[in-house]
Amino acid sequence: MVSPQSPIESPFGNRTTAAEVAAGIDLAGKNVVVTGGYSGLGTETVRALAGAGAHVIVGARRPDAAEEVLSEMEGTITILALDLSDPASIDEFAGEVTKLFDQIDILVNNAAIMANPLTRDARGYESQFATNHLGHFQMTERLWPLLVAAKGARVVAVSSVGHRLNGLDLDDLNFERREYSKWPAYGQAKSANALFALQLDKLGEPHGVRAFAVHPGGIVTPLQRHLTMEEQVAMGWFDEDGNTHESFKTVEQGAATSVWCAVSPLLDGMGGVYCEDCNLGAMATEETPRGSGVSPHIRDEALAEGLWAKSEELTGVEFSA
Fold first, then answer.
1. For 127-137, what is each residue's pLDDT tens digit?
2. Domains in the chain and their CATH numbers?
C-alpha cells in the first residue's frame, strides 16, 4: 500500500549531510547502482554508500571523467558506461550489471539534465523527458529481476521541487504539438520521476521492492550548466555579487535525502512517497514556499498508471511485475 504523504519524526533535517545519514549504517554485502554518480549530488551519494560498505556501480556517460573523480574515493566502486538517452547503451549497461551482481539492494536514479534548449534523442523524444524519465524507466525494467532478488530493495528516483512548475501532458509528452519551453519540459520530467516512484512502489511492494521520490533542495551543481548567471540571479538563486541564496544547500547536504531514502530504517514498510529534507514532504498549500512541498498531481495514482502505460509504449519495454 502506498504510504500517506505526511511528514514523520526524523532525527535529520535540511542541513543534514549524506555522511551523517549514513553514519552507523552497515551496507557490507549490499549492491548499489547510482546513475550519474560522478558529478554533483551523485558523487556525494556514492561516497556515502560506498563508505558504508556497499559495492557501488556508477553508470556514467563519461567513464573517463568518472574515473578521475572517483578513483581516490574509499570503498568498492565499479564504473560502467551508460547513456540514458541511448536505448542500446541502457541495455548494454544492464547486461554488464547482471554479469557482476545477482541482486541489487539499492538503485538510485540520480542522473539528470535541466532546462536545456530543445534537443531530441535518436527516437525523436524530447531530451529532458527522455533522459530523466524514459532512460531510467527502461534501465529499471532491465534490472528488475535483480531488484526482486534482493527481497527488500529500494529504488530512489531523484525528482525536484521543479515538479511544482506544472504537470505533464500524456498526449504530447515530447512537445510535438506544443511549443517547446525549457522550464515546462523540466517540470514535466521531474513530475514524471515522482509519478514513476508512485507506480513502481505499487507494482513492487508484493515483490519487496519499495520506491521513493526525492527533492534534494537547492544546490549549485553542474545541473545548471544550461543557465546563464543572469537567469539565476533573476530567479533569486544568486544575488548580484554571485552569492547563493541562504536557503541553498551544500552538495553534501543535497545528497542527504537520497541516502536517507536508500538506507533509513524509519522507512521500512513504507514507499511511494515524495521526500525532502530527510523526511516525507508535506502537501503544498497556497502558503507553501515555492522551494518545497508536494503538488497534488504527483500523488495522482490514475495519472501514474497512465504515464506508466505510455512509458512502456514509448520505450517498448514492459515490466514483468
1. 999 999 999 99
2. 18-224+251-315 (3.40.50.720)
Query: Are the beta carbons of 32 and 108 closer than 8 angstroms?
Result: yes
Residues with Cβ within 8 Å of residue 99, at least 6 apart in sequence: none
Q: Which strands, in side-by-side order, build the sheet including 273-276?
A: 76-81, 55-60, 31-35, 106-109, 154-158, 210-215, 273-276, 279-280
* CB 304 within 8 Å of CB 188: no
Do 321 and 207 form a contact (C-beta atoms < 8 A)? yes
In degrees and rounded to multiples of 5, residue 16 shows phi and psi of -65, 145
> pLDDT tens digits for 203-246?
999 999 999 999 998 776 556 665 556 665 656 656 676 677 66
CA atoms within 13 A on the CB side of 233: 8
How many whole angstroms separate alpha carbon 253 and alpha carbon 232? 20
Q: Write down the catalytic residue from 38, 125, 180, 186.
A: 186
The 3-state DSSP class for residue 33 equals strand
List pLDDT tens digits, range 135-165: 999 999 999 999 999 999 999 999 999 899 9
Q: What is the pTM of this model?
A: 0.94
Is there a catalytic annotation at residue 186?
yes
